[in-house]
Amino acid sequence: MSNQRIRIRLKSFDHRLIDQSSQEIVETAKRTGAQVCGPIPMPTRIERFNVLTSPHVNKDARDQYEIRTYKRLIDIVQPTDKTVDALMKLDLAAGVDVQIALG
User: Fold this and answer.
1) What tens digit of pLDDT does each residue of 28-87 get?
2) Is 64 inside a domain boundary?
3) How many domains would you assign to the chain?
4) Is 80 inside a domain boundary?
């Protein structure tokens, strides 16, 4: 496992949850003796929606909503067997989407 790399991508709508989860992952990886790069903040995706408030007239009256998607990237450069076991047992928040890629 010494020449492999683990890339972890996190997505969330809440920036506090994603920062807390990324901190847990980094602490777990460092505790098991792996070298960690990150968390790297990726660009925030902002989706905006405009909705008419009136069903008939008053085109100028609109409500505006937005959804922000926060992303973080963590690279574990030299993972050990303990690192992989600890990451599998790690319990993260429900609002965070985790994608793990071995490379």
Assistant:
1) 999 988 899 989 999 999 999 999 988 888 888 899 999 999 999 999 988 888 888 888
2) no
3) 1
4) yes
Sign of the CA dihedral running 52, 53, 55, 59: negative
Instruction: Report DSSP state, residue 59.
Output: T
Measured over all CA atoms, what is the biggest interatomic distance in the chain, rounded to whole angstroms?
A: 66
Host domain of residue 20: 6-43+72-102
CATH code assigned at 90: 3.30.70.600
List, edge to edge, every strand of the sheet that includes 6-12.
36-52, 62-76, 6-12, 96-102
Rounded CA separation 102/6 (Å):
5
Residue 48 placed within a domain: no
Q: Which residues pair with 75 in a beta bridge?
A: 7, 37
Q: What burial class does residue 80 get, using C-beta atoms within 10 Å of its C-beta: 0-12 exposed, 13-18 middle, 19+ buried? A: middle
**Higher-pLDDT residue of 45, 100:** 45
